[in-house]
Design brief:
The protein is an alpha+beta fold. Helices cover 21% and strands 31% of the residues.
Length: 329
């Protein structure tokens, strides 16, 4: 697909994406483990290269990579209400074996001089972790919303992300009595979809959220289907085909699905990997049986993505659609 440069020069990538009618479904990242570390600003484009990023943490991440462990790094801006002077909050979210409903969470508030030590033993899962148990905090019942505001990465993130962060942090979080913490985070991927946030430990990725969607996002008192245009996918799934199939089931089953252990698998693929059959399974929300859906998801085309405030096409984004969906039990 070609687009005349005169039509795209100087456009914000997120504005252009909306104008192209890009469907965000299926474009969420896939995470095995996500390491969240407080880091004072300023941040560079690649946050790990920031002046204040701990060298020991960078080394631990590099070692994990050489050992074949997949770790997603998210830095968050320190928040005086959530942390303490001289300490750094570190959280690790790990995908458990399937079926599962949410990532396993480990939350620490550690003296800043020990952050590298903590990250090293967290990532290599050594027995030394017990020596740091005194810094672990009980926050299993706390939602952590990470809103991308990484301005040195892309202008859309602070322009559209910061107002949503501000609303969530100052209007919604206080209403939940400590059960919701809201953070300004580094690049989540997909700034063309800003505002961009991930809701942990559940792991669902929401984009293009506006003030009108915040009540539904936080309190879930309206149907989940109202949020369909804003749902990018579940980072607990491995492929766009599975994410798109899960979206269709989620929109039908509603918010109850978020508390249920889900299994997703591709049963077959075809047409040169342009389509796949996916099964989504989970327990009945209020019963003893199991529910299963079979879906056929197909690559439906592409839309262009532009360089933010640039002069040309950056890449082409694949679009997916569910052509068949059947509840089989």
């Amino acid at each position: 697909m070609s687009v005349a440069p005169a039509r795209i020069k100087g456009q914000l990538c997120s504005v252009y994406s909306r104008a192209q009618g890009e469907d965000p479904g299926g474009s969420a990242p896939s995470w095995e483990r996500c390491l969240v570390v407080e880091l004072e600003k300023p941040w560079t484009n690649d946050v790990i290269e920031s002046k204040k990023f701990p060298a020991e943490v960078a080394s631990a991440l590099a070692l994990a990579e050489t050992q074949g462990y997949s770790v997603r790094l998210q830095c968050v801006v320190p928040d005086a209400e959530y942390s303490s002077p001289g300490h750094t909050r570190v959280m690790l979210f790990s995908r458990p074996p399937r079926p599962f409903a949410r990532f396993l969470k480990r939350d620490y508030l550690v003296p800043s001089e020990r952050v590298g030590e903590l990250v090293r033993v967290l990532l290599d899962q050594s027995g030394e972790l017990e020596s740091l148990d005194g810094y672990r905090e009980d926050s299993d019942g706390v939602r952590e919303m990470l809103v991308c505001t990484h301005g040195t990465r892309d202008v859309c993130c602070p322009s559209f992300g910061y107002p949503i962060y501000r609303n969530l942090r100052h209007e919604y979080a206080p209403r939940l009595d400590g059960r919701l913490r809201v953070w300004r985070t580094s690049h989540l991927g997909g700034h063309r979809l800003a505002p961009n946030l991930v809701d942990l430990p559940e792991g669902r990725n929401w984009v293009r959220i506006g003030p009108d969607q915040l009540d539904t996002l936080v309190f879930r008192e309206r149907p989940a289907s109202d949020m369909r245009p804003f749902y990018r996918g579940w980072v607990g799934l491995d492929t766009p085909f599975e994410q798109v199939a899960e979206r269709e089931v989620f929109m039908l089953e509603g918010w109850d699905l978020t508390a249920l252990p889900v299994t997703s698998r591709m049963t077959s693929s075809g047409n040169g990997s342009r389509s796949a059959k996916v099964r989504i399974e989970f327990p009945e929300p209020h019963g003893a049986g199991a529910v299963a859906y079979d879906a056929v998801v197909e690559l439906a085309g592409i839309v262009p993505s532009v360089t933010c405030l640039g002069e040309g096409i950056k890449e082409e984004i694949e679009q997916y659609t569910t052509t068949q969906l059947e509840k089989v039990r």
